Amino acid sequence: MAKQLDQPVEIEDEFKLGMEADVDDESAEEATSEASFSITSYGADYTVDGLVKRMKTESFFVPRFQRGFVWSQRHASRFIESLLMGLPVPGVFLYKDEDNRHLVVDGQQRLRTLQYFYAGVFLEKNFRLVGVSPKWEGKTYSELESSDQLKLDDSVVHATIFQQDEPKESLKSLYFVFERINSGGIRLSPQEIRNCISESAVLDLVRQLNEDENWREIFGQKKQARLKDQELVLRALAMIQMRDEYSSPMRDFLNDFAGEANKIRPDRLKELEWLFRESIKVIKDAIGKAAFRPVRALNAAVFEAVMVGLAARLQASNQVVNLANVRNAYDRLLTSAHFMAACNSATATLESVRTRQRLAIEAFASA
Q1: Within 13 Å of residue 233, how many CA atoms lie on the same side as its CB?
Q2: How far lies 252's CA from each of 34, 246, 337, in Å?
Q3: In the 8-state DSSP scheme, what is residue 222?
């Protein structure tokens, strides 16, 4: 059955995607972009032993960077017990890719529980049922009565499977679905979703650059929960690579860059890596830990513009950057009402992005 899904769908006001207490990113409060998709979706019923087989062969696969398994052994045992009792259980949500593999969008905990129970191992220890009916308490799969094994094997879990037909060459609908369905009530941040959906050389590079000692010294501790530090690295690379192609909203621009980044040549990726590392080193040496912080919080728009300005300077000239000139140029930018207006309000609009980047490129051109 083909369904036409029209966006946007409202996001809860209290959940500001990508926001961190010590990162000021006004673009994170953008309204969701308008988009429409042609999506084919259908339902399918799978037996439990069929699901376990598909998980083992990775024809049903959990993205490498999706949040890990979080259920306790008791919680997992209760799920197995529900199946043994013949109770209905929630279904799973799968995205069918072009290779006919199925990405697990929602249902990781349930599918992993089944996989672990059949393997007999729960987080490096024997998977014995706990907190369940006495007739099943303490038993592994292999210790169940044969009739119970057969009942579990033949239990059915419903799956909703979808694939995007239009637009082609895009995974935008998958971002929307992850944003709304995944994570059991705790929404994933935009960067967490990108890591789930797009496995690309550029996202590997983002994770490498996120370890850069100069970046870590400026940003501070890693934001493992929301990956805002990785998102800022991605934003710098995206703007250095394709700032002339920017269009709002910022979130979609970064999604598109992450999804299409495999088209970037390896030599260009090496150049992007060098530009990021050199630019962040220059600003750390010139400004120190206070870089990108016009007030207490790190300002994402200031970060983006300064990184673009320094990268443009490094690309344009092989001369050594003068740190004193960098400090002076940086100070002029942060005292410029025009520059700061483009960094503090409506920061994701095309006008604001182009204004602050132009001013930053001009400021650092003679550094």
Answers
A1: 29
A2: 10, 10, 28
A3: -
CA angle 257, 9, 200 (to 5 degrees): 20
Query: What pTM, to 2 d.p., does this model score?
Result: 0.73
Which sign does the torsion angle of CA 211, 217, 221, 225 carry? negative
Average pLDDT, the chain: 86
For residue 361, which phi and psi values (nearest 5 degrees)?
Answer: -60, -45
pLDDT in tens, 59-81: 998 877 666 788 999 999 999 99
C-beta separation of 279 from 310 below 8 A: yes
CA distance 6 to 25: 27
Each residue's pLDDT tens digit, 227-266? 899 999 999 999 999 999 999 999 889 988 887 766 788 9
For the chain, what's the residue count? 367
- What are the structure tokens assigned to 324, written together? 């004193």
Q: CA-CA distance, 134 to 129, in Å (whole number)? A: 10
The low-confidence residues of the chain, meaning pLDDT below 70, are: 1-21, 30-37, 65-67, 166-173, 179-188, 223-225, 261-262
What the block records as the tokens of 51 is 């699901």
